[in-house]
Amino acid sequence: SAAEIAELWRDYKDGGTSHARERLILHYSPLVKFVAGRVAAGLPQNIEQSDLVSYGIFGLIDAIDKFDPGRGYKFETYAISRIKGAIIDELRSIDWVPRSVRAKARAIERAYSKLENELRRSPEDKEVATELGLTEDELATTLGQISFVGVVALDELLSAGSERGSGATVGDTIAGSGHDPVAAFESEEMRQVLADAINRMPDRERLVLTLYYYEGLTLAEIGNVLGVTESRVCQIHTKAIFQLRSRLSE
Amino acid sequence: VDELRAMKAECNDVENALSYRRRLAQARIEILEAEHERRALGGTVEDLVKDLPRILSAESGRSSITDTRVPPPDSPGVELHWPDGREQLVADTTLAHLPLLPDDELESTIERLHAFERELSELRHRMHEVIDAVEGEIAERQVAGTAG
Ligand SMILES: Nc1nc2c(ncn2[C@@H]2O[C@@H]3COP(=O)(O)O[C@H]4[C@@H](O)[C@H](n5cnc6c(=O)[nH]c(N)nc65)O[C@@H]4COP(=O)(O)O[C@H]3[C@H]2O)c(=O)[nH]1
Ligand SMILES: Nc1nc2c(ncn2[C@@H]2O[C@@H]3COP(=O)(O)O[C@H]4[C@@H](O)[C@H](n5cnc6c(=O)[nH]c(N)nc65)O[C@@H]4COP(=O)(O)O[C@H]3[C@H]2O)c(=O)[nH]1
How many CB pairs under 8 A join A and B? Predict the structure, then answer.
């Protein structure tokens, strides 16, 4: 009941004992399972779920220590965003993407940026491949190794225009929500900025991005609707994200 | 299409609320079962708290890259009420007073949570079927619109 929970908070905020804090941690720890599940979706298997949960628990403890019950807002909402922030921060700092993939992604993104500026339109696969000194097949394979799905990838998408937090990002300027990519994405303003950028893209990329970000389909479902293979949809999505990022950061 | 979108938005709200409570129920089951084990094997509650990362991730699945959706809003969502108040199963202070819970109550709570989790999963699955059908319809029209 609400009264019992209020008492748990009073015990901790008045007495500050580790025993009282432990009771709050136990009571609210299911929130960590919820958040960790959402952040984990789409992450590679080498990232252990138990690690995500333990980063999340630190976020929960932080939220418990900082929460002011007198303030009148709901603890769950506050805790969920701190837990998510803690997990994402930790993933950023351990740089969860293998270095070689990171390097390839940067090279491809630079190629798109450069060609867009020179050609004043979206470059074709052939042009991007030539710019990178790859065959079209090699480019397709490389695109297949990079993927941008899930909460952490959304975070990286919204930080277009900033290399690892060195400057203002699209996400920061709009939502002011710091590390909550989902909240940033949910804001009306951000959805408009993204929609405008997406509408200016070539047909197929625009469809994939619209169906993924605005209609909530999975890449597999998009593949079904478009009549293309899953790996092909993955490549189109990755390519589209590079193009989107280069437009968002100009 | 606007009506389809409105219907989908409503279903998504309910789906989000169901998924949230389903995860909480799963977490509570995992913690209570760990407590059950702790009582059988000995060990402190403090150790159990340290062990939460393993406890809360043991059963967890993860979707692959192609089966992942854009992240839904991370809020508890709309309120859900059952006539017998079973939504309290994921909100009460059982976990806070874990060691004080009598053995038989521990077991009966685990059973009730299992039943509740199954029910939430079933309702959630049905919502997915509706949402996926509506999304499929909207997507088909968008693809057709682009082609035409
Ligand atoms: N990609 C993806 N697939 C999904 C999702 N939800 C359900 N599925 C798929 O549908 C199967 C049945 O799910 P369920 O009826 O909810 O039935 C589930 C649920 O009742 C329960 N369960 C699932 N995850 C957990 C967990 O983390 N902890 C606990 N205690 N139980 C869980 O175990 C049952 C079997 O789970 P699975 O073997 O994983 O099998 C799951 C999984 O393959 C989703 O959000 N994303
Ligand atoms: N329209 C529609 N929506 C769907 C469907 N399946 C899941 N969702 C919703 O989309 C969220 C993200 O799903 P996910 O990317 O598969 O990401 C899932 C998945 O990776 C994992 N997960 C949850 N339950 C299961 C399960 O039973 N088995 C497995 N293997 N993974 C699960 O945890 C993540 C978060 O789960 P939730 O918090 O429940 O959040 C889920 C749920 O609210 C579907 O078929 N149609």
Answer: 173
